[in-house]
Structure formats: structure tokens, C-alpha cells
Amino acid sequence: MNTKNHTIFELNMSDDYVIRSPKRDYEIPDTSVGAFVAKVLAQLDSQTKCIVNAIDGSQLTVKGLTTKCQSIAWALIKRGITKSDTILTFAENSTELAVVMFAAMFLGVTLYPITPIANVYELDQLMDTLGPLFVFTSTAKSAVIENIISKRMNERQMVRFVSVLDNNHNIYVPYERLLDEGSDHTLDAIPYFAVKPKKDIAILMQSSGTSGVPKSVMISHK
Q1: Which of 31, 77, 90, 214 measures 20 to 30 Å from 104, CA to CA?
Q2: Can you tell me the distance from the alpha carbon of 89 to that of 81, in angstroms, rounded to the nearest whole number?
Q3: Which Pfam families does the annotation name (predicted)?
Q4: Which residues, in sequence order, are CB contacts of 130 under 8 Å at separation 6+?
Q5: Of the CATH numbers 1.20.120.450, 3.40.50.150, 3.40.50.12780, 3.30.465.10, which one belongs to the domain with range 28-220?
Q6: What gap in Å lies between CA 8 and CA 14, rounded to an integer?
Q7: Can you say how many angstroms the Cα of residue 58 is from the centroid of all Cα atoms in its chain?
Q8: Which of 208, 190, 204 is nearest to 88 (CA)?
Q9: Binning pLDDT at 50, 70 and 90, where does residue 74 land?
């Protein structure tokens, strides 16, 4: 079919033109990400190395990851985190960052990992689209968070809590303190908060931002 200078080819699609894998279809379970991850971790040898930081050589075994996730999650519960809060991470890659991400899954709250190369303007624009936040950052990035908080002191939408993943900080709560606060505690259930897999948002992902300010993509548990 010709339309002016353009040619359009019509093709009746059928199974003859569909490439299929010889493997059986995988049915996505109707469960939360946290419950799925916890189940998989429980099936592994507790001493299996599951996270390795190629930069500094730090690593975590399955047992180490699970124990620290439980501790961080418990400490956040004690500090008042709720189902409606979002855990936002703004830090360089580290084993500590990985623990926080898994802790968010165990809790059943929404996780929003922000690239560490984001600037104040990009983060500030995101704040208008988000609800209450529990923020995990690094010492190097903490000034950006402080800048945003100081600009929004009189707004109802507020960063409720900030933790620094590395070293001590004179303003924000050190990650190690959270580990101490939650040590020897385990969650009664995973996820801790009730989750509707098809409806609730497990993670918010940032687009590349090549066409403007990065956009948020909502991904449910299922």
C-alpha cells in the first residue's frame, strides 16, 4: 500500500511469525517481592557469598545479608516507618546500600533508588511527586540532601528520617547505629506490612533523563 511517498506493508500476524522459547512459560507468583526474596534466600546455603563489592572487596554471605536486613528493618520500625513511607537511597554502590534495599523489600515499603550522579535540581523536582521519605545517603552526598531539606522546611511533605551509610555524621543517623538498634531482632512476617502484589508499588525506577528531567517508573510487586 502506497501513501504518498511512504510504503506501508501489511502483514497478518499468526503463530507462524512468533518466535517462542522451547522452555515452559514461567508463571509469575502472586506474592510480594520481599516474600519471594526471603524464600529464595532461605533455600541457599547460609555461608554462600551473595553480594560482593568489586571496588572495595567487601562481601556478604546469605546469613550476613539476612541478619543485617532484619536489623535495619527492625530499627526503622522502631523509628516509626509506616507502609505509606518510601525508602529513598541516594548513595554510591556499597554492601550497606544493598542491605538497605533488601530491608525495604522485607518491610514491604516502596523503594526508590536514585542515581548518585543526580543533582540538587533533579532531586528537588522529585520531591513534589513523593510522599514521606526515609532517606539513606552517603557522607559525600549528604550535603545535597541537607540542601533540599533546608529549602522545604515549611512544607508538609518532609523527609522524615535520614541515615548515612558510611562513617559517623554530626546530623544524620549512622547506618551502624541502626544495626545496633535492631540487632538480635527478627520480623514477625516478611513482608512486615501487608502487601497487595498487583496494586502496591515495590520499586520506583528513574528513567535516563536524556529527554529532560528523569521520570519515575512505577513497578508493582507482581
Answers
A1: 214
A2: 15
A3: AMP-binding (PF00501)
A4: 86, 88, 112, 157
A5: 3.40.50.12780
A6: 19
A7: 20
A8: 204
A9: very high
- Residue linked to cell 538497605: 100
- Signed CA dihedral, 171, 173, 175, 177: sign only: positive
pLDDT given for residue 145 in this prediction: 93
The predicted model scores a pTM of 0.84
Q: Which residues contact 52 (CB under 8 A, 6 or more apart)?
A: 58, 59, 60
Q: How far is CA 74 from CA 60, 110, 136, 186, in A?
A: 19, 16, 15, 7
Instruction: Write the CA distances from 29 to 33, 35, 61, 216, integer angstroms.
Output: 10, 10, 26, 25
Domain boundaries, the chain: 28-220
Cα 28 from Cα 85, distance rounded (Å): 26
Long-range contacts of 197-200 (CB under 8 A, 24+ apart): 197/30, 197/31, 197/32, 197/221, 197/222, 198/30, 198/222, 200/32, 200/108, 200/110
Least confident span in 19-28, 132-141, 180-189, 193-202:
19-28
Write out the three cell numbers for 5: 511517498
SS3 202: strand
| 222, three cell numbers | 507482581
The sign of the CA dihedral 189, 35, 192, 76 is positive
- For residue range 158-168, list pLDDT tens digits in order: 789 999 999 88
